[in-house]
Amino acid sequence: MTAYIFRRLLLVIPTLWAIITINFFVIQVAPGGPVEQAVARLEGHSSGIMERFTGGGKEVQSAEPGDQSSGYRGSRGLDPEVVEAIRKQFGFDKPLLERYLDMLKNYATFNFGESLFKGGNVIDLIIERLPVSISLGLWSTLIIYIISIPLGIAKAIKHGSRFDIWSSALIIIGYAIPGFLFAILLIIVFSSGNYFSWFPLRGLVSSDFAQMTWYQQVADYFWHMTLPILAMVVGGFATLTMLTKNSFLDEINKQYIVTARAKGLDERSILYRHAFRNAMLIIIAGFPSAFISIFFTGAMLIEVMFSLEGIGLLGFESTIQRDYPVVFSSLYIMTLLGLLLNIISDLTYTLVDPRIDFEGR
Fold first, then answer.
1. Closest C-alpha to 150, from 36, 264, 245
2. Considering the domain boundaries, does residue 157 fall inside one?
3. What are the GO BP annotations of this UniProt entry (predicted)?
């Protein structure tokens, strides 16, 4: 198993390199890069901001209306020296290949640089946003698993009954409701004051969180997390519940279960000592990848609606602003975590069922 893990870890390097490389060159051709963003901001603000790029004391001369010598659309009202200073500040005075090689070298040592527009170190920005994303991803995944697995087993045992039919109908309805739409409903009913004001509208914790006792802090944290988590989990039951049901149905109809029943074993023992372990193999082993998918892909709209400063919102804002250091570092970290969790997922298979031997393959 050690050799298998080592090979998988080695494969992380070329996979990560390929993903980062493709995204780097694709985003370079996207219009409205950071230089254009900065030029647009300068043209819309006072000359005091422009002094930041001109050294503070130099008088800025406007270019002629038809001058496009800077090479940037929207920069016709600025001195070309100002535009060149902006390009140098963002590192765009270097050739594309040199910027790419610098990025690879820095990311190999986890040096993600500074944000172009938000200010501060990129890794500090990401760490600052992690509690929100981890909270949403972890609790949503746990709740979905805790409810879906028993529900799927119950549906398999009572396959074709009224309970199975009605629960399937409710699950499909929940799956059809977008999370953001359900979030709007929760806000209107429980936070707006039109009906109830039971839960806060924004933030991960209250403003006086630091002055609370530890148990008050725990209660305050879950008070703020209740509605966002509910909005995220409402549509997450369908796939896992039906996967659990079908996996369990397939298992309890196999020959070894029929043989166990013929021997007179207790039905509960047959279901939960024999069928459960094999049926849950794919469900339990898929937990790491399920967590990473909810952690990174399902939270952005929820973060926006509940004013939660998480990784999803940070990535969206950075993409709109073309804040390349934040965009690429977020992608780098997400990809690395995803690849490592895939390895953990494989290891989970062997823990759930020791008969599985990846080394033998």
1. 245
2. yes
3. microcin transport; transmembrane transport
Q: Verify that 208 and 306 share a domain, yes or no.
A: yes
For the chain, give the percent of residues with pLDDT over 70. Answer: 75
| Mean pLDDT of the chain, nearest integer | 76
Q: Is the pTM of this model over 0.85?
A: no
Do 327 and 201 have their domain in common? yes
Residue with tokens 């802090």, as numbered in its chain:
217
* Whether 216 and 279 share a structural domain: yes
Residue with tokens 């496009």: 68
- State phi, psi for 296 to the nearest 5 degrees: -110, -25
Residue 44: which pLDDT band, with cuts at 50, 70 and 90?
A: low
pLDDT digits (tens, 9 = 90+) for 82-117: 666 666 666 667 788 888 888 888 888 888 888 877
Position 63 in a domain? yes
pLDDT at 292 over 70: no
Count of Cβ atoms closer than 10 Å to residue 49 Cβ: 12
Query: How large a percentage of the chain has pLDDT more than 90?
Result: 2
Domain count, the chain: 2
Structure tokens at 156: 């398999």
Is 361 domain-assigned? Answer: no
Contact 220, 206 (CB under 8 A): yes
| Average of per-residue pLDDT across 342-361 | 71
Distances (CA, A) of 101 to 21, 24, 111, 153: 10, 11, 13, 52
pLDDT at 63: 38
Tell me: do 201 and 348 sit in the same domain: yes
DSSP, res 275:
I
Torsion angles phi and psi, residue 256, rounded to 5: -70, -25
- Within 29-95, residue ranges assigned H as helices are 34-44, 47-54, 80-89
* Intra-chain end-to-end CA distance of the chain, in Å: 10
The letter for the amino acid at 302 is: I
Longest dimension (CA), the chain: 95
DSSP state of 55: T
Which domain covers residue 199, as residue numbers? 125-352
Residue 184 confidence (pLDDT): 87
Distance, in Å, from the CA atom of 74 to the CA atom of 348, rounded to the nearest integer, reads 54
User: What CATH number does the domain containing 330 carry?
Assistant: 1.10.3720.10
DSSP summary character for residue 254: S
